[in-house]
Structure formats: structure tokens, C-alpha cells
């Protein structure tokens, strides 16, 4: 009965057209706000998915590093234990160190990352080569794969140049020296390829053979900066982290991909929720139209309310009728907003109707990714706002004094 009264009040022609107009303005405001929420949240999802895919190309699923210090030792027995751990697909030994690169006259600071032959099973840097090839060389000639911006800064031509890049790294355990050169070890790398993943990596990293760095840094055969681990498909990274941490103990730090970039993911989530809160406030402002519409409807239906009360209707019934009226307005607006927002996202996803300005982006148009959870979140938000906006007019109708004056 509540639904019948509420739906009839919404559909019926009012004595004053302004009531109908305000009601449909409320529907339109909620529809536009709902569509905007869906679009904005989907765009954030799209960028989040894009960033995660880029970072997953460079960062491994699990990274094992020393709890303190820059290097660690893993014995062959420990490596075998890690290899046999359920959920481990592959691992790669890694050595990282800052270095000065010289190609021509201008020196450039970069991070050298020495990797072994299993590295391409752990990350997808090889799949992001834009010039040359992924080749770290061997003890005959060590080679380098440079980031795109770093290649430009050095002025290297990885395809045609036969001139090597000279590398300088600090010597270990050197406390006194006569000339600055005595504190440095140097070697040469032959450029082989260029990767393009994300500016943070492209401008900083040079990937080469781990033996080259171990020799320059005077490290032992089992010494490394980290062990990067690939998880088998479908394996939960947190569970795999727990297994490896229990095996290795507190002297090693085991991190998932999320923990390696925790600040980045936290910022992305904070931005998304901040935009959600701002748009929700806009929806609250739009709900004032609904308050006005319902309040005018209460005045319009004073006679009906009086008759219902005279027939024995309780205050709670009257209040539910007008609360339902508010939910009908909010519900129609929400459904229209879902259609508008969803349609726009599908058009953007398949046709890229709004494109990114410039030519330095990895994608041409704004990425979008619709998640069912976002639709649920928006629906709950609109229901709460609709109930809150309907409460005062509904209470006003419920406490309306009975008046049976002749008309």
C-alpha cells in the first residue's frame, strides 16, 4: 500500500506545475551526479589498472631483501628451499648500485641493475623494448639495456653505436686514497636495447649482467642486493610472502608488489576517495531540490493526509509513504545516471572519444574500467542521501494535524 500511494503521488498531475517541474529537476540532478560519479570512479580505476600494469612489468610479485644493510647472502641450500616453496614460479638474483655513466663528455648518474638469465621469467621488461633488443651480454662483452629517457640523456644510439658506455662505481672498504680514481672501479658496457615502461624507470635504470656488477663491486658469488620472485598463476601474494618469511626468518625482508609501491597505491586510493567525497557533497546539494519538491507535495496532499489519518492511518505509515516517494525520485535518477555513466564509459572504452593531449603518453585516450563495486557504492550513497533528504518532509507530513474543514 505504501508503494501504491507513493508511486501514484509521483505520477499524478499536481495542481501546481512547479511541483512536477521541481520533481523532475531533482531526478535530472541525481541522474547527472550519479553518471558523473560512475565516470570519475571508472576513470580512476582505469588509471589505477594502467599504473599497476606498468609497475608489474618492472617490479616482481615478491622481493626478498636484507632487513638491514645493502646486500645479503643466500646459500645454494636456501635458494633450493625457495625454489621448492609452493607458489614460486621462478626467481632472479639482483644487484643494484648507483653509478656514474660516461658516454662522450657529459657524466650521468643512474642505477645499475645487474640481473641473471632468469630475469625475464620474473618481470616483463623484455616485452617493453622499443629499440634494439634485450641482451645483458656475457663475460666476453657485457651489454646494457637502458631506459628511454636515460638513453636520450646520454645521447646513445643503441641500434648503430659501437662505442661503449663507461661505468664508475665506488669501491668497497676503501677508507683512504690518493686520487679520486683510486676510490672507483670502472668498466664498460655496450648498449644493446632501450625499454620504455614508466618515466620513473626510464630515466634512472640500466639493466646489465649481474656478474659485471659483482666484479665491479667486489662482491661474492652468493652475494646480492635482492632476490626477485615470480608467483605462479593464481597464487595469493600475501600467502606466498608468509611462507617465504617463515622460511628465511627476520634477517630478511619479504615484500609483495603492493608493499614495494605502498605509497603510490595509497596515494591513488586517497585521490579516488577524495573525489568520491567531493562528488557526494555535490549530490547532497542536488538533494535540496528533492526536499523542496517533497515539501510542496506534502502541502499539496494535506487533504489526503487528513483523510488517511481520519481513517486510522498511523504516523509511521504517512512517513513511510513520503520516504518512499523520495526513494522513487532518487531511484529513477540513479537508474538514469547508471545508464548515462555506463554508456559513456563503454563509448570511451571502445572508441576513446576523449583523448589525452600530447604524444608522450602510453595510451591515446583516458582509460576507463567499470567495477560492479562502484555501482553498489554509488547506489548506497544515493539511497542514504535520498532517505536523508526525504526525512524532514516525511516527518512534516506525519505530524500534520487532522483538519476536516469543509472545502
Automatic annotation (TrEMBL):
Residues 277-397 form the ABC3 transporter permease C-terminal domain. It holds the Pfam family MacB_PCD. Keywords: Cell membrane, Membrane, Transmembrane, Transmembrane helix. It is a multi-pass membrane protein. The chain crosses the membrane at residues 21-44, 273-298, 318-351, 371-392. Its main location: membrane. It comes from the Bacteria. It is found in: Cell membrane. Belongs to the ABC-4 integral membrane protein family. LolC/E subfamily. Residues 25-245 form the MacB-like periplasmic core domain. This is ABC transporter permease. PANTHER family: LIPOPROTEIN-RELEASING SYSTEM TRANSMEMBRANE PROTEIN LOLE. It comes from Chitinophaga oryzae. InterPro entries: ABC3_permease_C, Lipoprotein-release_system, MacB_PCD.
Amino acid at each position: 500500500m505504501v508503494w501504491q500511494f507513493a508511486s501514484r503521488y509521483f505520477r499524478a498531475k499536481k495542481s501546481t506545475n512547479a511541483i512536477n517541474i521541481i520533481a523532475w529537476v531533482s531526478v535530472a540532478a541525481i541522474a547527472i551526479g550519479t553518471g558523473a560519479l560512475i565516470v570519475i570512479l571508472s576513470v580512476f580505476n582505469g588509471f589505477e589498472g594502467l599504473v599497476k600494469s606498468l609497475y608489474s612489468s618492472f617490479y616482481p610479485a615478491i622481493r626478498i631483501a636484507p632487513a638491514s644493510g645493502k646486500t645479503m647472502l643466500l646459500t645454494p641450500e636456501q635458494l633450493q628451499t625457495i625454489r621448492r616453496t609452493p607458489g614460486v614460479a621462478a626467481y632472479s638474483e639482483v644487484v643494484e648500485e648507483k653509478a656514474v655513466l660516461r658516454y662522450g663528455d657529459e657524466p650521468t648518474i643512474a642505477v645499475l641493475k645487474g640481473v641473471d638469465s632468469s630475469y625475464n621469467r620474473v618481470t616483463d621488461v623484455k616485452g617493453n623494448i622499443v629499440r634494439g633488443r634485450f641482451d645483458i651480454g656475457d663475460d666476453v662483452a657485457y651489454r646494457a639495456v637502458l631506459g628511454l629517457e636515460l638513453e636520450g640523456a646520454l645521447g646513445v644510439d643503441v641500434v648503430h653505436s659501437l662505442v661503449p658506455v663507461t661505468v664508475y662505481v665506488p669501491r668497497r672498504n676503501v677508507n683512504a686514497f690518493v686520487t679520486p680514481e683510486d676510490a672507483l672501479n670502472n668498466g664498460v658496457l655496450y648498449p644493446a636495447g632501450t625499454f620504455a615502461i614508466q618515466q620513473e624507470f626510464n630515466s634512472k635504470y640500466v639493466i646489465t649482467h649481474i656478474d659485471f656488477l659483482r666484479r665491479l663491486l667486489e662482491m661474492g658469488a652468493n652475494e646480492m642486493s635482492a632476490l626477485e620472485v615470480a608467483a605462479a598463476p593464481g597464487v595469493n601474494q600475501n600467502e606466498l610472502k608468509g611462507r617465504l618469511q617463515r622460511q628465511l626468518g627476520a634477517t630478511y625482508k619479504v615484500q609483495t608488489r603492493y608493499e614495494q609501491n605502498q605509497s603510490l597505491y595509497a596515494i591513488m586510493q586517497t585521490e579516488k576517495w577524495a573525489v568520491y567525497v567531493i562528488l557526494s557533497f555535490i549530490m547532497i546539494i542536488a538533494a535540496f531540490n528533492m526536499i523542496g519538491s517533497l515539501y510542496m507535495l506534502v502541502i499539496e496532499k494535506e487533504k489526503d493526509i487528513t483523510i488517511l489519518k481520519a481513517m486510522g492511518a498511523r504516523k509511521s505509515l504517512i512517513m513511510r509513504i513520503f520516504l518512499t516517494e523520495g526513494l522513487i525520485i532518487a531511484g529513477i535518477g540513479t537508474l538514469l545516471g547508471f545508464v548515462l555513466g555506463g554508456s559513456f564509459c563503454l563509448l570511451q572504452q571502445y572508441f576513446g572519444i576523449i583523448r589525452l593531449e600530447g604524444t608522450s603518453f602510453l595510451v591515446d585516450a583516458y582509460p576507463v574500467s567499470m567495477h560492479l563495486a562502484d555501482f553498489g557504492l554509488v547506489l548506497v550513497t544515493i539511497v542514504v542521501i535520498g532517505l536523508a533528504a526525504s526525512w524532514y518532509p516525511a516527518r512534516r507530513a506525519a505530524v500534520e494535524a487532522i483538519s476536516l474543514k469543509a472545502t
